[in-house]
Design a protein that fits this description.
Blueprint lengths: L5 H12 L8 E9 L10 E5 L6 E5 L5 E8 L1 E8 L5 E8 L5 E2 L2 E2 L8 E4 L13 E5 H4 L10 H7 L5 E3 L5 E3 L6 E5 L2 E3 L16 E7 L13 E7 L9 E9 L3 E11 L3 E12 L15 E15 L2 E15 L12 E18 L2 E17 L10 E22 L2 E22 L8 E2 L5 E2 L10 H4 L4 E2 L19 E22 L2 E13 L3 E15 L3 E12 L6 H7 L19 E14 L3 E20 L6 E20 L5 E20 L12 E2 L4 E12 L5 E10 L10 H4 L4 H6 L3 E2 L2 E2 L13 E2 L23 E10 L10 E9 L7 E6 L3 E4 L4 E9 L1
Length: 856
């Protein structure tokens, strides 16, 4: 157990014990509205908006002329104040951090002028030194996507060009696999948030997200290719209860329901979100049409806020959720009946104390627990080539404390993050296919199915034509159930202790912004390491409404926690490459040099253009390897990786109800052996430099949205294009010849124009081998680095149509209706195929969903 700095622990305990706080990634805007004589104006309407993200909140001043906006995501805003008999006042302001922004407003008598505008503008550029995108709930709530249990992943993927989409809610940020830290109301979560590993917070609980893709500043550590700063919804300050109910029905027997309820006073608030769903296509499947893929998801989120006085604010986030699903079948494994259940809960209190207008203390304790149970088929021989079971627990608790000080040119933050992760892993597997690891081969080199044979030296004694299998893995024979073996059993527990200290200063010198900081991380797990990480970012605002930026970050990378203990115990290259127990080579923390340069350009008052180039060099680059055709994965590490690419976004403001954005990205992800960790890989492990399945030449998202007046009819259209991720399991035509008949049919394999069928697979090909779904290089032309096999390019079109006010009521509760069509062209396409790192998954067929709701 690591010795913790007791002063910091005591501070955290005392601060958190008082109650429940506003998140570190959002702020408050407050002020007082007066008339020319200085008298308070009660009942004035105050509106806070961002024309690019779509954020909008409205409050009314109290008897003392006071107003307050809570949980305001970090960004630029326009404040508008109007009251009967007075001129409307507008002014721009910036929420840079959690330090409260005070914006007092004096209104003039209406006869003096029609409108007073202070620093008014429309789409404002941001001078942040790191590239990021700000996404409000008004944008992602209408996205025409409907992946069960993965709404947050969909919103992230469709909002930034730096993210490549993958199956089951996975995504690849800037050429990495799942190197993402989620900061939810101040609670850092760097473990997996895909529905295969954990449970995501639902979209209807979120107010907005800041997606940081540039080099991170010093307050962020661990997994930083993408930082998702999520701000949840709050009931604090609500003048009357608000909420919604809705129910949806759709393709594949999909049904979902949700309810939200918010209520509060100026000092106390509560927001509750309940969600449940069931689908016959819960996971992305190894066949285009789902087989054995029923699953359900349920979650409860509750946020409690309390503000006892002007200097203190508390919050408490409570979250619990469950995923239960069948593991999808392929045509080659129709009898398996594997299932998985994930149970998660989280308790995250927080506290903020404002010492004065310049100084703010934030304390965020947290505890989170994920439990995963994986159940094999009742008949183990229905699972092939192995049967497996798993029960593991990942429990994470700790505290993050920081002190923010703003004065003059400086915006300083100093803080610490202390946490412990407790791991428990129980795992069993046994080989059920005698042809997977045969002891003997016949004269033609084909496996000989000899259930009793365990010694390769006895092959010739059994039959003079039999020879030992030169690729035999003797370490697996004791676990071969077809040869009288017993299941391999693993049990382990371990604690991972981590603590970090950071100091950063954002210095504003006219049009120049400097963000300088340093972070130190200590990791004590199966291995121990320390990382000192300098960070530096610069941005400069030109008179042409252009922001130029560049940044560098040295980051400390830690291994994935899921199945880490068994992966470490398996040794270099996994169980296949070593006699289990004789080699112990655990995955070690890595380090990275991260460079980022880019610009943001305002075009008139209506358009914002973002563009960035990034380059990352990592020692010990992490990923997962999948266990055959199961969703069980094991962390691995590669010696080095070199990743670079370009990302961009073009966004409009709301133009009379119309709003659009385009995101685009290009990534080169080159990885270098040797590899450490894993268990039994689905495909071969590369021995030279290769493009990993995060590598994609080009992807883009186009989103067009139009709403006819506020809360009336709307239409939302998305077009996603992917040039195709790298395929690791089938490098060329020669490899495709060894596929099963159904696998050849799945990829549309053909030779000399003659397609493979279930009855007539292709085993030799002297002509041109082709695939309708893979690029499939010809035999001998594939190159792991320069010409790897890839998924073929594909476009997906999604459409949503609805109304936020079905009966056009002018006030009060209203009914809503929407219809969503996903993959409207019914494009048959893959995320990946027999991937060493993720298996086989088809993109969802054409699907529809109808939703009716009630909002009050």
């Amino acid at each position: 157990m690591v010795k913790l700095p007791w002063a910091i622990v005591l501070l955290a305990v005392l601060s958190a014990a008082s109650g429940f706080g506003q998140s570190i990634n959002s702020g408050t805007v407050s002020g007082q509205v007066t008339d020319p004589s200085g008298a308070f104006i009660a009942g004035a309407k105050v509106r806070l908006t961002n024309p690019v993200t779509g954020f909008e909140q409205t409050v009314v001043t109290d008897n003392g002329g006071n107003f307050r906006f809570n949980s305001v995501p970090v960004n630029n805003y326009r404040l508008e104040v109007n009251s009967s008999g007075f001129n409307t006042v507008q002014q721009n302001l910036e929420v840079r951090n959690s330090v409260p922004v005070v914006a007092n407003v004096a209104l003039s008598i209406a006869s003096e002028a029609s409108t007073v505008t202070v620093q008014a503008s429309a789409a404002a550029v941001e001078t942040d030194t790191a590239s990021h995108q700000d996404v409000d709930s008004s944008a992602f709530a209408k996205l025409p996507v409907m992946s069960p249990g993965a709404g947050m992943s969909d919103a992230i993927t469709y909002s930034t060009g730096a993210v490549a989409a993958d199956a089951n809610g996975f995504f690849h940020p800037l050429g990495d696999h799942a190197q993402t830290t989620f900061v939810i109301d101040g609670q850092p979560v760097s473990d997996q948030q895909s529905k295969l590993f954990s449970t995501q917070i639902p979209l209807n609980a979120l107010q907005g997200m800041e997606l940081i893709t540039g080099s991170p500043d010093a307050q962020y550590g661990d997994k930083t290719s993408l930082v998702v700063n999520a701000t949840t919804r709050s009931g604090l300050g609500a003048t009357k209860p608000f909420g919604s109910f809705d129910s949806s029905w759709g393709s594949f027997g999909t049904w979902s329901g949700s309810a939200t309820l918010g209520f509060g006073t100026p000092n106390l608030g509560n927001f509750l979100a309940l969600n449940v769903s069931r689908s016959g296509r819960f996971l992305d499947t190894p066949e285009f049409l789902p087989i054995h893929d029923i699953g359900n998801n349920g979650s409860i989120f509750d946020r409690i806020d309390w503000q006892p006085g002007p200097k203190d604010v508390f919050h408490l986030d409570l979250f619990t959720a469950r995923n239960w699903f069948q593991v999808p079948n392929s045509y080659d494994q129709l009898t398996q009946d594997q299932k998985q259940r994930v149970m998660s809960w989280s308790v995250a209190p927080g506290y903020q104390h404002t010492f004065n207008a310049h100084t703010l203390l934030t304390v965020n304790p947290f505890v989170r627990r994920d439990q995963l149970n994986y159940y094999p088929s009742r008949d183990p021989f229905n699972d092939t080539p192995v049967t497996a079971s798993q029960n593991r627990v990942l429990m994470n608790y700790g505290v993050k404390v920081d002190l923010a000080y703003t004065h003059g040119h400086h915006d300083i933050k100093i803080g610490t993050q202390i946490q412990q992760t407790r791991l428990l892993e129980n795992f069993q597997f046994g080989i059920t296919d005698p042809a997977y690891n045969p002891v003997c081969l016949n004269a033609a080199g084909d496996p000989v199915l000899l259930p009793g044979a365990t010694n390769p030296n006895e092959c010739s004694a059994i039959n003079p034509t039999y020879v030992p299998n030169p690729n035999l893995l003797p370490s697996l024979i004791p676990y071969d159930l077809t040869r009288g073996g017993a299941p391999f059993t693993f049990h382990a527990t371990h604690n991972i202790n981590e603590y970090a200290f950071y100091l950063q200063d954002t210095i504003t010198l006219g049009h120049l912004t400097i963000n300088a900081g340093i972070r130190d991380d200590q990791y004590n797990g199966v291995t121990s390491a320390n990382g000192v990480q300098p960070r530096l970012g610069l941005s400069y605002l030109l008179p042409t409404n252009t922001v130029l930026r560049a940044s560098y970050a040295r980051t400390f990378e830690t291994p994935f926690n899921e199945n880490l203990l068994l992966s470490d115990a398996a040794g270099t290259g996994g169980l296949e490459q070593n006699v289990f127990g004789t080699v112990y080579n655990p995955i070690r923390p890595g380090n990275r040099n991260d460079f980022d340069t880019g610009l943001q350009q305002g075009v008139g008052k209506w358009l914002i253009i973002d563009a960035d180039y990034f380059w990352k060099y990592t020692h010990n680059a992490f990923d997962f390897s999948v266990l055959f055709n199961t969703p069980i994965t094991f962390p691995i590490a590669w010696n080095n990786s070199k990743v670079d690419g370009v990302s961009g976004r073009v966004s409009t403001i709301n133009l009379h109800g119309f709003q659009a954005y385009l995101t685009l990205g290009h990534t080169r992800a080159r990885y270098f052996p040797p590899e450490t960790g894993g268990l039994i890989a689905l495909g071969g492990i590369p021995t030279g430099v290769f493009r990993i399945d995060h590598d994609q030449a080009y992807q883009q998202n186009v989103n067009l949205r139009y709403q006819r007046h506020k809360n009336e009819e709307w239409i939302d259209f998305t077009w996603r294009f992917d040039s195709g991720l790298v395929v690791s399991g089938v490098p060329d035509v020669a490899a495709a010849l060894g596929l099963t008949p159904s696998q050849q049919v799945d990829i549309g394999f053909a030779c000399a124009g003659v397609p493979a069928t279930l009855a007539s697979p292709i085993r030799t090909c002297s002509g041109l081998g082709t695939s309708t779904l893979l690029t499939l290089p010809q035999t001998g032309t594939e190159n792991d680095d320069h010409n790897p096999d890839r998924v073929k390019p594909h476009s997906l079109f999604d459409v949503g149509i609805g109304t936020d006010n079905l009966f056009h009521k002018e006030s009060g509760p209203r009914w809503t209706l929407r219809f969503t069509l996903e993959n409207a062209s019914n494009k048959v396409a893959l995320y990946n195929f027999l991937s060493t790192f993720s298996g086989t998954h088809f993109i969802e067929p054409r699907s529809y969903q109808a939703t009716a709701g009630y909002v009050f």
